[in-house]
Each structure stands twice: as C-alpha cells, then as structure tokens.
Task: inverse folding
C-alpha cells in the first residue's frame, strides 16, 4: 500500500523572497541614486578607493535589480504546466549571479590597485570624505531594510551581503581619505582599495558555497538526513525507513521524500510522519510512500 502527504507550513505565509520584495525595491532605489554620484566624484578626485567602491556599488545595483526580477519570477504562477515546482529556483540563480558580479568587481579592484603601485597619483581627500560619508549613510539605511529578510531568503541574503561589503567599502573610503590627508601619501588609497577587494571576494565565496549547496540539492542545515531518518523511524507504526532524500528547493522551502515500511494503519503513519517533518525539521513539502512489511519495494538503486 502507498500514500502521500503534503506539508506546506513554510509556504503558507508566501514565498520568502516575495514577502520581502519591498525591502529590495527601496534599497535598489537608494543604491542606484547614489551610484552615479560616487562614480563621477571618484573619476574627478582620481581616488581608486572611491572608484572601487563605486564599482562595488554598481554590483549592488545589478544584483539588487536581479534579486527584484527573481522574486517577481519566483512568485509568478506557472502557465506552461511543466514547472511542477514553480519558478522558485529563480532567486537562487539570482544569488549565483550576485556571486559572479562580486567576484568580478573584487578582481578588477585588485588589478587596478596593483597597477597603481609606484605611481604618483593626486587624490582628492576632501571629496573622498564627503562621498564616503554619504555612501555610509545610504548603506546603513539599506542594511536596516534588508536585515529583516536576510535570514529567510537566500536571495535577500545575497543582496544584504552585497550591501554589507559596500558598507565596509564606504568605511574604507573614509579611512583612506583620513590617511591621505594626514600623511600626504596616496598609497593609502591603493592599500584600502586592495583591502576592499579582498573583503568582497571572501563574502562572495561564502555566499557562493550556499548557492552551490542548494543547486547541488544538499540536505539543509536544519534537517540532517541521519536525524530525519531516526525521527521517522520513531513514528508509531513505522518499522523501517529507506529512500530518504532531503533538499532545499529555495529559501524557506525544504523538501523531503521517503519510503516508510509500516505494519499498522497507513493513515496513522502518514499523519505521524508528516507532523514530525513539519514540527521538528520545518519541511515545507513532504512526499511519503507507505509500504507494508511483506511488499517488495521497487525503488531506485542509487
């Protein structure tokens, strides 16, 4: 005998990225408005720290825009009949795109900084101070907006980490301006630019690891397969559990499938197993096949 059960606890409140789309929209507007100012001042002041921060700000504009598009796509109903899981993975692809942009910006910063070593470039420290301060204010507001959704959506988290890195960049610009002003040496502008590039690269690699884990269908951190297996085996009426798979579809939506061997009533086993997955592991969608102990399971062999 077989059956299936669907648990939608985490989906009931709506798609995680979609719920926080307004945060992305406001942050996008703020960052996009400031990017042009920083770019122009960076060129006029010849500050590599400002230009590197402007480059990272451009990455913010691109990734926040991609995140906005992804949340729209992810919450859009499927009209083809072929996307049985909808388009929820769109936000994961947007996060992957954010990683690539962040890495590209960090590499550009490092290359430009190395190219300036030994050169005698005049840097406008006053302009750096003013623009760095404004950029810091813009980033702090954006951080406060995005922090509320970063723990629920990988897409929003990608945008949040982008702004975190850019906030550090703004602080770096202010520090570089102070050092240039007090020492009279433009080398500090280059040193800070290198530090910003290294920081952005580390953040990008960390986010990239999370994106790969989702696309690779790794088990989520809150649902270790061995723990899920033991919990299902402890359900009344279950004598064995096999073909267990747990993965993340998108942020806030973990999925599981399993075969349960039962000696008693199927409905009791389904209800008990569904409750365990929902309450102990926050599994958003579970598909369970219940088998009798005397039936040969013809499942996959991998």
Result:
């Amino acid at each position: 005998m077989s059956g299936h059960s669907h648990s939608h606890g985490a989906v009931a409140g709506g798609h995680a990225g979609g719920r926080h789309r307004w945060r992305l929209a406001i942050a996008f507007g703020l960052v996009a408005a400031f990017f042009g100012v920083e770019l122009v001042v960076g060129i006029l002041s010849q500050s590599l720290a400002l230009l590197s921060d402007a480059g990272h700000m451009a990455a913010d504009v691109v990734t926040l825009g991609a995140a906005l598009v992804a949340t729209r796509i992810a919450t859009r109903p499927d009209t083809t009949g072929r996307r049985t899981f909808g388009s929820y993975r769109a936000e994961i692809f947007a996060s992957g795109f954010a990683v690539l942009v962040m890495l590209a910006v960090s590499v550009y910063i490092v290359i430009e900084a190395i190219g300036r070593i030994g050169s005698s470039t005049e840097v406008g420290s006053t302009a750096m101070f003013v623009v760095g301060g404004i950029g810091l204010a813009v980033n702090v507001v954006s951080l406060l907006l995005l922090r509320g959704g970063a723990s629920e959506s990988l897409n929003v988290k990608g945008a949040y980490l982008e702004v975190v890195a850019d906030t550090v960049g703004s602080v770096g610009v202010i520090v570089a301006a102070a050092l240039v002003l007090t020492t009279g040496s433009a080398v500090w502008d280059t040193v800070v630019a290198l530090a910003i590039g290294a920081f952005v690269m580390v953040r990008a690699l960390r986010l990239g690891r999370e994106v790969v884990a989702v696309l690779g269908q790794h088990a989520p951190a809150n649902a270790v397969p061995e723990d899920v297996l033991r919990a299902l085996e402890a359900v009344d009426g279950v004598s064995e559990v096999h073909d267990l798979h747990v993965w993340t579809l998108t942020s806030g939506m973990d999925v599981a499938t399993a075969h349960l061997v039962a000696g008693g009533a199927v409905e009791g086993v389904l209800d008990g197993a569904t409750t365990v997955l929902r309450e102990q592991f926050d599994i958003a969608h579970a598909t369970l096949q219940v088998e009798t102990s005397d039936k040969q399971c013809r499942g996959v062999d991998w």
Summary: The longest helix spans residues 154-183. Residues 4-14 have pLDDT under 50 and may be disordered. The chain is about 65% helix and 10% strand.
